[in-house]
Amino acid sequence: MTRREAAVAPRESATGAIYDLGYQGYDGPRLGRRAAFATLFWASLRAAFGLGRSGRSKIVPWGLSAIMIVPAAVAGAIQAIAPGGLSPFNYDNYLWDLSPILALFVAAQAPELVSSDQRNHVLSLYFSHALARSDYALAKLGALAAALFILAVAPLLVIFFASILASTDVAGAFGDQLGNLPQIIGSPVIHAVPLAALGLAIASFTPRRAYATGAIIAVYLVTGAVGEILSEAGRGRLSQVAPLLNPWVLLDGTRTWLVGKGVPDSPVSDANLDLWVFGLLTGVLTAIAIAAVLWRYRRIAA
Amino acid sequence: MPLISTQSLTKRYGSSVTALDGLTLDVEPGIIGLVGANGAGKSTLLKILLGLLKPTSGSATVMEMDVATRGPEIRQYVGYLPEHDCLPPDVSATDFVSHMGRMAGLPPAAARERTAEVLRHVGLYEERYRPIGGYSTGMKQRVKLAQAIVHDPKLLLLDEPTNGLDPAGRDEMLDLVHRTGTEFGIATVVASHLLGEIERVCTFLLAIDAGKLLQSAPISSFVERTGTLGVEVEDGADALAERLAGAGLTARVDGRSVLVDCPDERPYDIVRDAIDEMGLSLTRLEQRRHRLEDLFRAEGRTDDAA
What we know:
Chain A has 13 helices and 2 strands; from the N terminus they run E-E-H-H-H-H-H-H-H-H-H-H-H-H-H. Chain A has helices at 32-48, 56-81, 94-97, 99-119, 123-127, 133-166, 170-178, 181-203, 209-233, 236-241, 247-258, 267-270, 275-299; strands spanning 9-13, 16-20. Chain A has a two-stranded antiparallel ribbon. In chain A, helix 2 (56-81) packs antiparallel against helix 4 (99-119) and helix 6 runs antiparallel to helix 8 (181-203). The radius of gyration of chain A is 24 Å and the shape is globular. Residues 1-13 of chain A have low confidence and may be disordered. A 6-stranded mixed beta sheet of chain B has the order 6-7-8-3-9-10, sandwiched between helices. In chain B, strand 1 and strand 2 (17-27) form a beta hairpin.
């Protein structure tokens, strides 16, 4: 730091002297684009959980986080009281059973991350810094995906620790459970990245939060319903591909393909399809969604 | 070294709207007033200098860096105050300015330190911890200025910094801009449609109209050439104009007023004496030179004469 104005004027008062140091210039390091990217990522991740915001903006993300974890905690507690009892939840069916909570989180928080910047024209400030437009899009995508990952991995970790602590042989149980780690980490990643991409692809196209939230919920409800109707009513090949229309079935299929076992009686187990089809479609959809977000921010006026 | 330099810079929106039309200029550091009517191309020029907009043709450099190829580098050293609202309502001024400081590349500790400093400079104290949504327009403008200077820029681009402020707020904001430019030594471009504001704080003036450069000169030379005194009398305007012309002044009648060109202070005494001796009842005496229309009309006349 250098001092451009040398005049230091002490002003005496009852409590002491006030020094007017004048304007301080800044000669320290300027960290550039990567630091700006990291700053935006962390600030957006905090914003996804309402941290540093008013109490009101914490209600939805914290409420949904609580709902997401409580079933796992309760199941864990029951296991601790009555060991050996069969828990209704495992690493395979947990995210499938609680998928509506993940959907609500995306619907509520994707607009929180991007719509407000558009509505309040904060974008023109971001773009007037050493940040490329694609940086903005990727930082927001990364932040939402990270938030969803945290939301999804937390209950799986609760199950993980609960089953270790509930067993009589803690060390042995730890060894047994370690083998589940790829699933505990992989399954939330498989859900978080595509959901974040789809959510932001929708939310980035409107500055109005309510529209974005409504549109995201509508997409999940409508695609799910259409898939359901087609598989009930359709025949032959149409009913066979119907599960692919439902994003949740796609994600569960991809998860089953890559890291876990199928959930009994779920559309994935009932569908007469190779599992890689789910994975391929999820990958293609995610890529299209990410491209849409990047395209949107390249074109948007600021 | 020129601070800003443009060569036949042209920006068209679609096929019909031309915001900048072959603009060529060179600007040295200082406090530069960029004046023009609404739609003259001021905001477009600032956005091109920032690299927010791509010019249709032509080129521009800021601090000898080409805006087309070195945008991110330029933006590290530029502070920008947009014309419109640009603040999130649910964040406090401290958090927001500090966040923007880090976006501009300051390390966390430096960002916090400089945030406290610039918020004090712009005159935000206790309220800095409350969400911005509850601020008055004047306070919001101060936050906008604070985020533009938090990273100690080499160049400050201010787009209508007094937008939406009441007269007292305008005075305070202009004073802040002047102090920021002089005490801090930050080269500043102030875009405004109010010539009076530009004249108060700037040392150099750029006038643009319909995307073309109209005038580029130190403010002192500008004011001299365009100074006009409006003398409004009950009746007898024609006689007064005749008499003033006889005394060697350039005077013309405009309704009940006589417009007298004032290249220096001499006409004031002559006008006073003439009114007194002719026994006219004076209703109004005003400086007309501060009005943008007059400035542009005066330029038109000069062109005709040349």
